[in-house]
Amino acid sequence: MLLASPFQPKRSFASAVKMRQSLESDFSSAVLFLQTYTGPHSILKNAASPVRVALDALFQQATLGACTTEAPTDKVELLSWEKWKTLGDLPKEQAMQQYIKTLDDLVDNWRRSPSLRRAASDSVAVTETTPLMDRLPAFAQELDAIKAKLQAQASDHEALLDAVNTLTHDTKAQFSRETRQIELVRSQTAETIKGLEAQVQEQKMEMVLLREKQHQLQVVLERSIVFCVEDHFLKWWKGTMQYLQDRYVRMLIISCFLT
């Protein structure tokens, strides 16, 4: 029977510590990668996506343990809180492992990401002097700050959209009112023009009728018997008066010669 070596527990404990440190290091890198991610996966950039909600819940479980806080009022934070609540008493180590595995399944070679290397190089001094688990609350605070900033930007964006929609609605309403006024003026002008044209046509018809009546009256006058008699009488009267005048002149001439 082989006796157990007295040094074996020390090696197991050292191995466990090393594995723990490796897990914490991978988890810290995964958190840092997600915070600085700018790749093509929209589900990692959208805070309301199911993947991001699950990752945020695992992060809370890995850093704070079981959920003991009250439900937040923000809709996105409420989704993460509800997912965190379902994790129950899941150990922090398992939450870290699930967090890392989720990234492994979504992004190939995320540990070699340029943004992760840049962010890691900027925090080398802090990493060398501060234990990883002590830095996780700071990561949580940074993540909360990023969430708050994103929510503020989203709120500003929604306010801007509301302002644009309001301005667009007001502009459309004003344009519609002006368009209706223009159409009303146009229709009134068209009706006025039609009325004037109708009046002109009526006046033309009246002028034509008056001319026809004048012509008819002239024809009737020319053909009237009384008019003919009167015309003959006037002609006879003019001839008689001319004859008498001529006779009177002849008599004066004769009387002048006789005297």
Explain what this protein looks like in three dimensions.
With 259 residues, the protein is mainly α. The chain folds into 3 domains: 13-129, Acyl-CoA Binding Protein, CATH 1.20.80; 152-220; 224-259. It is built from 9 helices and no strands. It has helices at 8-35, 42-45, 50-64, 75-86, 92-106, 114-122, 124-129, 132-223, 225-258. α3 packs antiparallel against α5 (92-106). The termini are far apart. Residues 23-112 form the ACB domain. Residues 186-213 form a coiled coil. Belongs to the ACBP family.
Derived structural class: mainly alpha
End-to-end separation: 207 Å
Counting DSSP H or I runs of 4 or more residues, the number of helices is 9
Shape: rod-shaped
CATH-level-2 architecture of the largest domain:
Up-down Bundle
- What fold name stands as the CATH topology of the largest domain? Acyl-CoA Binding Protein
- Summarize the biggest pleated sheet: none
Element pattern in H and E = HHHHHHHHH
Percent helix, as a range, is over 70%
Radius of gyration: 57 Å
Number of separate strands: 0
- The figure for the number of domains is 3
| Strand residues, percent | under 5%
Low-confidence stretches: 1-7, 124-129
Mean pLDDT: 80
| CATH C-level name of the largest domain | Mainly Alpha
GO molecular function: fatty-acyl-CoA binding
Coiled coil: 186-213
GO biological process, one term: fatty acid metabolic process
Protein name: ACB domain-containing protein
